[in-house]
Structures are given as C-alpha cells and as structure tokens.
Design goal:
The protein has 498 residues and is of the alpha+beta class. The chain folds into 5 domains: 94 residues, Uridine Diphospho-n-acetylenolpyruvylglucosamine Reductase, domain 2 (2-Layer Sandwich); 118 residues, Uridine Diphospho-n-acetylenolpyruvylglucosamine Reductase, domain 3 (2-Layer Sandwich), CATH 3.30.465; 110 residues, Alpha-Beta Plaits (2-Layer Sandwich); 88 residues, Alpha-Beta Plaits; 50 residues, no CATH class. The chain is built from 18 helices and 21 strands. The strands form 5 sheets. Strands 12, 13, 14, 15, 16, 17, 18 and 19 form an 8-stranded antiparallel β-sheet that branches. Strands 5-6-10-8-9 form a 5-stranded antiparallel β-sheet. Strands 1-2-4-3 form a 4-stranded mixed β-sheet, with helices on one face. Helix 9 runs antiparallel to helix 14. The two termini are 45 Å apart. InterPro entries: FAD-bd_oxidored_4_C, FAD-bd_PCMH, FAD-bd_PCMH-like_sf, FAD-bd_PCMH_sub2, FAD-linked_Oxase-like_C, FAD-linked_OxidoTrans_Type4, Oxid_FAD_bind_N, Vanillyl_alc_oxidase_C-sub2. This is FAD-linked oxidase C-terminal domain-containing protein. It holds the Pfam family FAD_binding_4.
Length: 498
C-alpha cells in the first residue's frame, strides 16, 4: 500500500465490488476482467515502482464499443477509472486506486491503416512506439519520436505523456507528430479529433489531449505522422574533461544555427555504466560525453559534421570520433539507449527524474546538482537530451536502507525546484503524475492551477478519470465557479452573469 496521499477510497463503491466486477464481465466477457489479487499484482504500479497500490479490478477491453460501455457504466455509478498503457510511465501516471477500475489498453495492438501517400498511419493505442516504425520501414518511412523505452512503451502512453526521445530536438515530441485521435469521454461518448489532414479548424483540442495524462478521456485510436527516412545519418562521439565544457558546446552548436537530428549528453557515472553494459567504445576518462547526430543529404551532413567537430574542439573536446558506417552510428546510440538499465546494474535502486531547463543554464545546473549530490550523500548519474535541455538525472539509492528513498525524493524535488528557478519547467516528457504533483505550485500560481482544473472539469466534471494525479489539490467544479462579493459589489460588474 502506498504512503503517498491519494483520494480517499469510496467505501460505498468498495462494498459493491462483486456487483461491479460482474457488470464489467458482462461488458468484456472471457478473460477480459482480472479480479484476483495475484492476477492484479503486475498492475500495482508503473515504472515508478516506489509507489504501489492494488486496483479494485483490472479490465482489458478489445473494442472501442467496450471502452465506451465501461466508461458509461463507471460514470453512471460514480466509479473512478485509471487508464493504463504499457506501464512504462516514470511519474506514477498509471498508479491504481484502491476503489478504481484499472483500464488497460494493451489489447488495442493493431496497425489499422498505413497511408504512404498522405504520410500517415492509423494505429491502436497499444501498438508499441517502435512497432510503428517496424510496420513502415520497408517503404523507407519511420515514426520520429523515439523514447529510450520505445521497444516497450505504447503509442497511447506516448500521447498521454507527450513523450519525446533522442530525436525530438529536430523532429519534435509526440504533440508534433500526432495528427488525430479517437477518444472516449467519461460519459462513454466517442469523439474524433483531427485526422490525416494537417490542421483542424476551431479550438486546438488535439493539443489539449496530447499530454493530458489520462485526465480527460481514453484514447482508442491514434493517427501519426510518418517521415521519410533521411538519405544519410552520421554521428559524432565527443569526449570532454568537464560537464561545463560540454554544456557550452551544446549552446554553441545551437547558436550556430545547426539543428542536429539528436544531441545527447552523459556524465562520468553514466558513461562507465553504459560502457560496462554495452561496450560501445565510450572514452572512460571523459567527465562528459556527447553524441551528436546529423542527418539529411550526404553533402550537407559532411559539412555539418565538420562544423560540429570544430565547435567541439574549440570548447576543449579531447576526443571526436565520427561514425564511418551505419553500424558504428547505431553502436554510439546503443549505450545511450541502454543507459537506464545500465545504471540499474551499479545501484540497488535509482530514481529517474525529468526536468527541462534553458540550454544556457546547463553548466550552472550541472554544478548545482553535484553540490546537491554531496549534500544528500547520494550518487547521481546524468543522461539527458542536451539539445532541448531535457534532463534525466538518475539518483542512486538503496530502498533497503531506511530513509534513503525519502532522501532520494527530497534530492529529486530540489533538482526540479532548481529547473524552475533557472527558467525551466517541471517535466519535459515523463509527465507530472504523482511524482511532481505536489511541486506544481513551484511553477504555477493558484489562479493558473484553477484554470487548468476548469479544463479538467469541462471533460470530467466528477473527477472520475485518473484522480489524484497532476493537481496537488482537487476542487469540485462548483467551487471553481464561485462568485466573490466584496463591499456589496462583484469584480468586473459590467460582465454578464449566467
């Protein structure tokens, strides 16, 4: 049972558990409902395993009609619902509720349509990120966003968290590569937003849904943008004697007008862990390692590689190794892609953070994180998307030692406060979930949060979809519409009241 503050379980709902399970089995027959403790155990947490909670029941629908019927039933009976993809979320976004239905979308695993003429594919939300590229690469196309967990994470989860990846600097996050979705509201209404066309008229509701962390509806279909694979791609492996020098190199590459396909950075602990795990040929004497990939026509790539190398040497790089084959380029990336599991080999536990800062603040933030590491007495390995300032510090701890988890959480909270302090934001791609929920006031004023909750209320007035996530304090929708009267007068008396 998690010690994290979550919404109080509804005793009335829990008392009706048998009736609810039976109703769900009528909607999803066969093996689509899991109600025994052992069967539900794999669903007790997502990738943020520090927090766990068994759900009341797990349901695995296979059709949009079943999803609509489940949500309609839950809405009519006041039952909370937690949508879940592959469970790779690192922010606790899919943490179950004791009185809630965990709605797993992993049986929605088909590619429905591939339209090369319109450079689009229609897929179900349980299709893996890498699965989309695998379905279209034979024709020279691919799907650009590539989180490190792309072999396992689902496109539905990517939509919920607005995931990025190593190539998001040039090609954008999920929000920049999703053209449309089919969505089921908490009332069971099936809605389509966007499509294969480039833009839709009216409000940007698609932009609201992407990154909404399961709070507004359940996505049952996704239309994604396909890109032509670049003619060529080469990577440069660059070693520095200091993280500050590497950070300055990042800033100067972008300032020179060069937009790499990917630009990643790792510090010494992460370099050693990845090298021991993958044997990618990383320089062990480097304090910071950069991988910069350029893609496009061969002539352009060759020219940009020279410019990047010159900027790196100017900033004190002691090693610049340029890939001479596609196999070598992929080897450079293999270590970075495996950095998270690699760090898992050097520490009993680690806490993966996610924050974003302005690129110019990179040297300052790295120096401050070293100070925090010494203050808390915990190691920290850094891997991050250097090009867009998206940091992924991995805080090393041992959950078997009393108090170490709490120290790791405090260390992580200080890193996120630092991100906001230097002009950044709490998250770049992992989402807020429960991990950053109570830090939202560090970034947003009360009025800002109230406005965000009003949007939530427009989709889910009773707060049945994924409650307890994102917002530090839940307000009833009626509370947000309250009218203040002072000295016998309301504010803005000239505005009409309804």
């Amino acid at each position: 049972m998690t010690t994290l503050a979550m919404p109080e379980p509804n005793a009335v709902v829990l008392s009706r558990r048998a009736e609810i399970v039976a109703a769900l089995r009528a909607i999803v027959p066969g093996e689509g409902v899991i109600a025994d403790e052992r069967g539900m155990r794999p669903y007790e947490s997502d990738g943020l395993t520090a927090y766990a909670q068994l759900p009341m029941v797990v349901v695995l629908p296979e059709t949009t009609a079943q999803v609509a019927a489940i949500l309609q039933y839950c809405h009519a009976n006041g039952i909370r619902v937690v949508p879940r993809g592959a469970g790779t979320s690192l922010s606790g976004g899919a943490l179950p509720l004791a009185d809630g239905v965990l709605l797993s979308m992993m049986k929605f695993n088909r590619v429905l349509d591939i339209d090369f003429a319109n450079r689009a594919a229609v897929v179900q939300p349980g299709v893996t990120n890498l699965g989309i590229t695998r379905a279209v690469e034979h024709a020279g196309f691919y799907y650009a966003p590539d989180p490190s967990s792309q072999i396992a994470c689902s496109i539905g989860g990517n939509v919920a968290e607005n995931s990025g990846g190593v190539h998001c600097l040039k090609y954008g996050l999920t929000a920049n590569n999703v053209l449309g979705v089919e969505l089921v509201t908490i009332e069971g209404e099936i809605v389509r937003l966007g499509g294969k066309h480039l833009d839709a008229e009216g409000y940007d509701l698609l932009g609201v849904i992407v990154g909404s962390e399961g709070l507004l509806g359940v996505v049952t279909e996704v239309t994604v943008r396909l890109l032509r694979a670049p003619e060529s791609a080469r990577a440069v492996l660059i070693g520095f004697h200091s993280s500050e020098a590497a950070g300055q190199c990042v800033a100067e590459i972008i300032a020179a007008g060069i937009i790499p396909g990917g630009m990643e950075m790792m510090d010494r602990p992460a370099i050693h862990a990845a090298e021991d795990f993958v044997h990618a040929g990383y320089p062990r004497d480097a304090e910071a390692l950069m991988i910069v990939e350029l893609d496009g026509p061969p002539v352009e790539v060759a020219h940009l590689i020279e410019r990047v190398e010159a900027i790196a040497l100017k900033n004190g790089a002691f090693e610049c190794r340029i890939s001479t084959s596609d196999a070598e380029r992929l080897t450079f990336w293999a270590g970075r892609k495996a950095a998270f599991p690699a760090v898992g080999r050097i520490s009993p536990d680690y806490y993966c953070m996610d924050g974003t800062i302005p690129r110019r603040e990179l040297p300052k933030v790295l120096a401050r994180m070293r100070e925090l590491s010494e203050h808390y007495g915990l190691g920290c390995a850094n891997v991050f998307h250097a090009g867009d300032g998206n940091l992924h510090p991995l805080i090393l701890y041992d959950a078997n030692i009393p108090g170490e988890l709490e120290k790791a959480e405090a260390f992580g909270a200080d890193i996120l406060r630092l991100c906001v302090e230097v002009g950044g934001v709490l998250t770049g791609e992992h989402g807020v979930g429960v991990e950053k929920r109570d830090l939202m006031p560090e970034m947003f004023a009360e009025a800002d949060l109230d406005q965000q909750i009003r949007l939530k209320c427009a989709f889910d007035q009773d707060h049945l979809l994924n409650p307890g996530k994102v917002f530090p304090n839940l307000h009833r929708c009626a509370e947000l519409g309250r009218m203040h009267v002072h000295a016998g007068a309301t504010r803005f008396p000239d505005l009409p009241r309804f």
